[in-house]
Specification:
By secondary structure, this protein is α+β, with helices and mostly antiparallel strands. The protein contains 11 helices and 17 strands. Strands 2, 5, 7, 8, 9, 11, 12, 14 and 16 form a 9-stranded antiparallel β-sheet that branches. Strands 1-17-15 form a 3-stranded antiparallel β-sheet, with no helix packed on it. The radius of gyration is 23 Å and the shape is globular.
């Protein structure tokens, strides 16, 4: 049976939509674009005849209020579950995402009062031995998306899809807190981060799936001097989406911890994702992520040298650093000698404490 649409009425309606303000237009045409991806083309073909064109898949995805949804999810996570409901709810999650509860410090599911406590469960002390023979270890459980040298101020979030190093880390207004060159000669953003002759800049991207251990740790012995918080979107950081949206990590909310280690500049960035609006850094009580008071497109800085002590925050390899509330991504960007090598393969699964690379 063929569907017939009153085309004149549609033309008039689309004409009214075209006169609306951009925010209103997005709101009113969003349902049509949504249907475009789920209904057969033959059903929506009459709309195309009268001049309607769907929003692109990326544009459509970006209009979803991920920050608001993540805030609501965070509230839901805090709701205490009745004792009788805990086992079936958590068992469903364990079955869906392949969680290994034998590693948990507390295996009894009824111990976790709400979903948030379950997501942030701790591990048994010996579940993740820290490798002592390598200078950089994995800060978390996860999957290696990409690693290697930073080239031309571009970093790969997945193979073939890049983002700008400068956009990701932000302007170097914090460099006075670090031992970073401030000479007046013309240098690129990447060259400005390299403080020692003969060094290169390296990166490593680790994706934490919903079933992974959600805490992250210090990947090496280093000093944290500065924190920069970028409020932003909370789009999924699933590898499939990362291939789809260029500069995804620059759009999403993130917390950049910058400092130095024995070989120069070192940074760890925790990138938020859908339902992961909450990024917690254990030694930073002033950090509040996914807060409505912060606008997307801005950033706020905090110096651990001028506000806490002149030495910054010293972290030991393997020490607890922070946590997410579901799955997310960690990006390491650091300076090291040219003979630094990664002991990794793209796509491999890795656990906190295992070696990332050595000199």
């Amino acid at each position: 049976m063929r569907l017939h649409f009153p085309q004149l009425a549609l033309r008039r309606r689309l004409g009214q939509l075209s006169c609306m303000s951009k925010p209103a237009l997005k709101l009113r045409t969003w349902p049509l674009s949504f249907l475009y991806f789920f209904l057969p083309f033959s059903v929506l073909k009459p709309l195309a005849k009268v001049g309607w064109r769907p929003t692109s898949r990326v544009g459509l995805y970006k209009t979803i209020p991920t920050r608001l949804l993540s805030r609501a999810w965070g509230r839901l996570n805090q709701v205490e579950l009745p004792t009788w409901m805990r086992k079936p709810v958590y068992n469903l999650y364990i079955w869906t995402f392949g969680v290994n509860m034998k590693e948990a410090a507390v295996e009894d599911l009824q111990h976790y009062r709400n979903l948030s406590e379950f997501f942030r469960r701790k591990l048994k002390p010996q579940a993740r031995p820290v490798c002592d023979s390598h200078c950089v270890i994995s800060p978390s459980d996860g999957k290696i998306l990409h690693f290697g040298r930073v080239k031309n101020c571009q970093v790969e979030q997945v193979k073939g899809v890049t983002y700008s190093l400068e956009t990701f880390l932000g302007p170097q207004t914090w460099s006075e807190n670090l031992e970073i060159s401030n000479n007046n000669t013309e240098t690129t953003f990447q060259e400005h981060l390299v403080t020692k002759e003969g060094n290169d800049l390296y990166h490593c991207v680790i994706y934490l799936a919903p079933g992974d251990y959600h805490c992250f740790h210090s990947p090496t012995d280093w000093r944290v001097s500065h924190r920069r918080h970028f409020p932003g979107s909370l789009m999924s950081v699933n590898p499939g989406v990362a291939r789809w949206i260029k500069e995804l990590f620059c759009h999403n909310e993130r917390v950049v911890l910058a400092g130095d280690w024995t070989h120069g500049f070192f940074s760890l960035t925790a990138v938020g994702a859908t339902n992961v609006g909450s990024i917690r850094i254990y030694f930073d009580n002033d950090l509040h992520t996914n807060s409505p008071r912060y606008m997307k497109g801005s950033y706020n800085d905090f110096s651990f040298i001028t506000n806490n002590n002149k030495g910054g925050v010293t972290m030991q390899k393997g020490e607890h650093l922070g946590e997410f509330n579901l799955g997310s991504t960690i990006v390491l960007i650091f300076e090291a000698p040219k003979d630094f090598t990664f002991n990794l393969k793209p796509g491999q699964k890795i656990r906190f404490g295992e070696a990332l690379g050595s000199i």
